[in-house]
Structure formats: C-alpha cells, structure tokens
Amino acid sequence: AEMFGQLTGGLEAAWSKLRGVDVLTKENIAEPMRDIRRALLEADVSLPVVRRFVQSVSDQAVGVDLIKGVKPDQQLVKIVHDELVGLMGGDVSDLVFAKTGPTVILLAGLQGVGKTTVCAKLAFYLKKLGKSCMLVAGDVYRPAAIDQLKILGEQVGVPVYAPGSELKPAQIAKQGLEEAKKTMTDVVIVDTAGRLQIDKGMMDELKETKKVLNPTEVLLVVDAMTGQEAAALVTTFNLEIGITGAILTKLDGDSRGGAALSIKEVSGKPIKLVGRGERMEDLEPFYPDRMAGRILG
Ligand code: GDP
C-alpha cells in the first residue's frame, strides 16, 4: 500500500515474527506487540490511543480460540484489522440532511487546510447525489478566498453567494441562507474565515455564525499532515462551538496516519469525508473498513 506505507511496513514486522508459531501466547506476542506500538507511535497516533489499542489487541490475541485453518499470525492481523476499524468509528458516518428546508453545512478550519477547496468539492459531490447546492463566501478577511470560491463554484457549476467583505460573517451567512430558501436550494455550504491559529475572535465569530444558521452539519476541516494535532483541534473546536464531524484533507500526501487513527477516539467525533487530491472529484466518504484494509496492505 502506498498510503501510510511506513505504518504498513511497521505492522508487517509484527506479523512476520509469528510465522510458524502454532498458537498465540503472552510470551510470543510480546515482541510483535512492541512492533505494533512502535509503528503506531511513529505514525503519530496519540499515545493514550496507542496504549488502549495495544492493550485491547493483546487481550484478544491471547484469549483467542484458533479458527481452523487460520494461522496465528493471520489471526493477529484480523484482530488488529477489527480494532483499527473500531478505532476509526466502525461504520461510515453519513452526512445528515435536513428533513425540511435547506440542509446547512457550516465549514470551519484553520488557514491552509483546504477548506475553500472542500466547499467546492463538497458541492460537486452533493450535486452527483442529485442535490442542488449553494456556496456562501463567509471568509471575509481574505478577499482572495472569496475570489477562489467564486472560481471554484463556477468550475463545479454551483452558485456562490458572495456579498463581499464589508458585512460580518454571521450577516453573510444569514443572507445566504435566506437566498437559499428563496431559490429552494437543497444544501447551503458556508465557508468561514480560517486563521493561522485558534483564537478567541475566530471562535466567537463561528459561534455567532452557527447561532444564526442553526446548521445541520458543522464540519471541521483538518489537514492529515498535522497528525495527532488534527485530533486535538477537533476536540477543541467541538468543546468550543460543537461540531458534528471532521473532514480530513490531504490524505494523498505523505501523512503518516496519526490523524485518521486518532480523531474519533480522541474527540468522539467521526471523520465524515476525506480529501485525496486537489481535483474536484477528490472527496469521498470515510470508510473505516477500507482504510483499515489499506493500512494493513
Ligand atoms: P484554505 O486556506 O483552508 O481555504 O485552503 P485551500 O482550500 O485554499 O487549500 C490550500 C492548498 O491545499 C491549495 O493549494 C489546495 O489545492 C491544496 N489542497 C486542498 N485539499 C487538498 C488535498 O486533499 N490534497 C492535496 N494534495 N492538496 C489539497
């Protein structure tokens, strides 16, 4: 597997030590478990998550009844696979749509994580599901972001509500929502200002925008390259403004896997979608089982 290659290789070291053994014991899994622990830490998975993971896997491995025909090393692979799936939330976490009126998706995130790109990618994705969309340009501090959103909106054939940078983000959001109701749009995607770091001004603005929108989804866009820091961000944003999930971007880059593996466990919030490239079609639902499969190679 090209993605998370280092993690895949590190885990393989664990199984390779169990070739030829007849049964998994506390003794013979000790070293493979250290390999697993090391591989996860090197992938930048958060330490408490690694500890729980390793404990759970060893408990299961030693108690396991041998399934006929399945070799012990393959049994450990299976246990790790299932544990990885659970760690990432188990089932796919679908986007929620409003029962009546427009579905409102509020997007938040730090600067440079790919938020503006995600707005357009999400509209493109939802259009394919047969939903009409509108983008709302609420990133008032970066005129370039508004222009970028207009260009991307045009590219994917979705209207962009952009009254400029004079109004406050919450006002823009409110007007955008009214416009969407008037035009019977199914989904309104609201872009917000990203900052280089979390600050009070950003959080206050997001809270205010959330209040006027009463959004169906509040999704934090995080960059996979930031590893377990992404999980910390999801936790902070959730505590501060209340979010419904995360969108993990740049999974096509050489991220090590820590973000994908830590976010749900650390923050309690699922990853709903992942970005794997700069093209508009590079956004897809996050499938924990497929991800686990890719990690295991
Ligand atoms: P924003 O500041 O959060 O709005 O970030 P942008 O949407 O402007 O994206 C920042 C840069 O990251 C741009 O060059 C995007 O093309 C790039 N980008 C966004 N998402 C992805 C992704 O999933 N993969 C890759 N490789 N690049 C991405």
Automatic annotation (TrEMBL):
EC number: 3.6.5.4
Reactions it catalyzes: GTP + H2O = GDP + phosphate + H(+)
UniProt keyword list: GTP-binding, Hydrolase, Nucleotide-binding, Ribonucleoprotein, RNA-binding, Signal recognition particle
GO annotations of cellular component type: signal recognition particle, endoplasmic reticulum targeting
GO molecular function terms listed in the Swiss-Prot or TrEMBL record: 7S RNA binding; GTP binding; GTPase activity
GO biological process: SRP-dependent cotranslational protein targeting to membrane
Statement: the UniProt record of this protein carries the keyword RNA-binding: yes
Lineage of the species this protein comes from: Eukaryota, Viridiplantae, Streptophyta, Embryophyta, Tracheophyta
Descriptive protein name: signal-recognition-particle GTPase
Principal EC category: hydrolase
